[in-house]
Amino acid sequence: MDIHVNRNGQAFGPYEESEARALYARGNIAVTDLVWRNGMAEWQTALQMFGERATQPGAPPVVSPPPLPPQQVSPVPGYAAPPSSYGQQTVVPQQDLPPKLHWALVLLFTVLTFGIFAVVWQFFQSMWVRRSIDPQSNATLYLIGSVALAIVGSVLEAASVLSNAPGLDLLLQALSYVLFFCGYYSMRRSMIDHYNNVESIGLTLSGVMTFFFSMLYLQYHMTRITKWKQTGEIKPQ
């Protein structure tokens, strides 16, 4: 089955699998080059597809791989490999990238807007999770419920102050917090599943950090993932 190779946005091939493996063994295809063949949903690195490159005992290490051969065969009309979501690829669809904003800026904008920015930004995060990594995610629904209960609770709180009578405001506010955390723990689960089983980067997300810092904590990791998709380098956790 033909294998396509992509290095920094430049396409090579397609090559027969035996030829691609030979090029990989000789170092023409680097371990960080992206490869794809028909039937794959995503691009992979050559290391993921071919495994560790065999080395001869006592052989000097390869400092840098020689260039790939020129592209040999034009793609079949109407046929195209899927865009890569790894490495230094200018073809990465922007809708596949997590919301990229430094967590400190999220905090700053939240303070400057008296919390309005945080209300909006949580939906940017949850909708990205549902659109790009987990179509079954219910995080957005949890967050909608959280905001709705918070608004109703605030209205009832104001009414109870005017009437000097207790109401349901405390209960609704408590339920609002419960739904908020349900939304963020749902996003946490979706990210852990995806980035350990589909795009494996060994992502770990602390439950304690998610509880105390929720939006800012997940935003930190979303920014890490965005930079990894754009540069191929992942910042240590």
Which value, in Å, is the CA radius of gyration?
24 Å
Principal-axis shape equals elongated
What is the percentage of strand-forming residues? 5-15%
Number of strands: 4
Alpha carbon gap, first and last residue: 37 Å
**Secondary-structure element sequence?**
EEHEEHHHHHH
Helix content: 40-55%
Structural class: alpha+beta
- Unreliable segments (pLDDT under 50, ≥5 consecutive)? 72-80, 84-95
User: Number of helical runs?
Assistant: 7
Mean pLDDT: 82
> How many strands, which pairing sense, and closed or not: the largest β-sheet?
4 strands, antiparallel
Order of strands across the biggest sheet? Answer: 2-1-3-4
Task: Compose a concise summary of this entry.
This protein has 237 residues and is an alpha+beta fold.
Plain-language structure description:
- By secondary structure, the protein is α+β, with helices and mostly antiparallel strands.
- The chain has seven helices and four strands, in the order ββαββαααααα.
- It has helices at 17-26, 46-50, 103-112, 116-133, 139-163, 169-197, 207-231; strands spanning 3-7, 10-15, 34-37, 44-45.
- It has a four-stranded antiparallel β-sheet with strand order 2-1-3-4.
- Mean pLDDT is 82; it is low at 72-80 and 84-95.
